[in-house]
Design goal:
This protein is an alpha/beta fold and 438 residues long. It folds into four domains: 67 residues, no CATH class; 75 residues, Orthogonal Bundle (Arc Repressor Mutant, subunit A); 61 residues, no CATH class; 187 residues, 3-Layer(aba) Sandwich (Rossmann fold), CATH 3.40.50. Helix content is 51%, strand content 12%. The protein contains 20 helices and ten strands. The strands form two sheets. A seven-stranded mixed β-sheet has the order 6-5-4-7-8-10-9, sandwiched between helices. It has a three-stranded antiparallel β-sheet with strand order 1-3-2. Helix 4 crosses helix 7 and helix 18 packs across helix 20. Bound molecules: S-adenosylmethionine. The site of S-adenosylmethionine (SAM) has 13 residues, from loops. Keywords: Methyltransferase, S-adenosyl-L-methionine, Transferase.
């Protein structure tokens, strides 16, 4: 071995010990913090803790935990090595079959809450619950793979029991719907995304996607959802699980923008759904009025009834399709979590539809995801945001955007939009702003 190759070999071995030492040190810090407060750590035992007690520890513990997650992954991947890593990545798709089967055949409901059940007895219960015949040997192979992925356990050979992960499917409806949606409803579209890219290269149309190939129709994803009541319910329920993820809380929309500088103004909350974002900002900004626009389907009498009594004189829920020319001449137009569902072609149409109502100085305030430059975030954070970007391709040919993409969107829509900049709130969403200067 030459000296350079030897040095490289040594430093690659050093990297393993550097990582393991850092993991040990940080785990010690975390364990001390938990012990000091008498807190437990998560466990896969049926009676274990399903979540790290994030709300009960200080900021340093939260940071150290993130670092341990990143470091252990790095060490794991390095010890595996690139060849095995690639093999594992390609092969792991098979692991989604058990999760899909568990959701589809209601297996978590069929396993008793305590004690265990034989695969033969389980087959009878699964048939009763789901109407599908699964032979015991298929149930056994499906669940034994699930067990290797930390779901269920087999306390004695031939009998299966719950563990903490599988119990979550019964305890947490939003999470159960999250698992069901991404397996039962999305595995086909995910598998057909590349076929859609071949069939419709570079498409910006919402009905030329993996969803269309899988279900063989020409509807957009949202029409596809509306056509199937069970699917629409699964989607709406799983969104609660998404919405409750760290960093997406409405409080960041309230605290992340200098609302006070708008003075006594009217804000149009575009695609504002039932108004919860406007309610939250209005509570904190007594000088602001809000007009919440959304499609007619969102304007049920129950939704109108939900306006808090103290806000009825400042917040109104109205109907407007944001592709149609805007009729409300206001000081600001807020778009929270809207544009990432539209390809550039349609996002530009939405911005142009504002123009008839815009008066000089009117602001367009966007609160949405911004893609980071590569390598800026931790690998895990970057993976999460890039997964969302590719998922938008699968679902509707839309996209997440970097700061320059947002800027370009305004430029393409109309040169009279004056770019004000983009900044991150303390949560995960950014604010992106332009002013109308005719
Ligand atoms: C992801 S939700 C965001 C809701 C809200 N802005 C928030 O941040 O919680 C997207 C919203 O856009 C609405 N929407 C979709 N197409 C629309 C259109 N053409 N005109 C107006 N609203 C629309 C939907 O009904 C839905 O309420």
């Amino acid at each position: 071995m030459g000296s350079l190759a030897k040095a490289t070999a040594e430093s690659s071995v050093d990297q393993l010990t550097i990582l393991s030492k850092a993991i040990e040190e940080k785990t010690q810090i975390l364990a001390n913090k938990l012990r000091a407060k008498g807190l437990g750590a998560p466990s896969f035992q049926a009676d274990g803790l399903s979540d790290f007690p994030l709300n009960e520890v200080d900021d340093e513990a939260i940071k150290v935990r993130q670092e341990i997650i990143a470091l252990t992954k790095e060490l794991h991947d390095l010890v595996l090595g690139p060849r095995e890593w690639l093999k594992t990545m390609a092969w792991d798709a098979i692991s989604y079959i058990p999760l899909h089967a568990i959701c589809e055949f209601r297996i978590a409901e069929a396993v008793p809450l305590s004690g265990s059940i034989t695969y033969e007895e389980l087959a009878v219960k699964v048939h009763r619950l789901s109407g599908t015949t699964i032979i015991p040997s298929d149930l056994r192979r499906i669940l034994r793979l699930a067990i290797t992925n930390n779901m269920f356990h087999e306390p004695k050979i031939g009998s299966v029991a719950h563990n903490r992960t599988s119990l979550l499917l019964l305890d947490d409806t939003a999470l159960a719907n999250w698992a069901a949606f991404f397996t039962m409803d999305m595995m086909g579209p995910v598998a057909n995304t590349v076929a859609a890219m071949k069939k419709w290269p570079g498409s910006q149309e919402a009905n030329e996607t993996g969803v269309n190939i899988t279900f063989n129709h020409n509807d957009s994803f949202f029409d596809h959802l509306q056509a199937d009541e069970a699917l629409a319910r699964r989607y709406a329920t799983m969104l609660q699980s998404h919405g409750s993820r760290e960093g997406y809380d409405i409080s960041y929309t309230v605290s992340g923008y200098p609302w006070a500088r708008l003075g006594s103004s009217t804000v149009v909350d575009m695609g504002g759904s039932e108004g919860v974002v406007s309610f939250a900002v209005a509570e904190q900004s007594p000088q602001l009025r809000f007009i919440v626009q959304d499609l007619a389907g969102m304007r049920t009498p129950e939704a109108i009834d939900k306006i808090p009594k103290n806000l009825t004189n400042r917040v109104s829920l109205t109907t407007h399709d944001f592709f149609q020319p805007q009729t409300e001449s206001a000081d600001a137009y807020l778009f929270r979590h809207i544009f990432h569902a539209f390809s550039d072609k349609y996002a530009i149409d939405i911005l142009r539809a504002l123009v008839p109502a815009l008066r000089p100085g009117a602001r367009v305030i966007i609160n949405d995801i911004v893609l980071p430059a590569p390598g800026l975030l931790s690998q895990l954070e970057e993976k999460s945001i890039r997964t969302m970007d590719v998922l938008m391709k699968t679902v509707c040919n839309s996209r997440e955007r970097e700061v320059d993409d947002w800027r370009s969107l305004f430029e393409q829509a109309d040169k009279r939009f004056r770019w004000q900049g983009a900044w991150k709130s303390s949560g995960k969403l950014w604010f992106i702003e332009s002013i109308w200067e005719p």
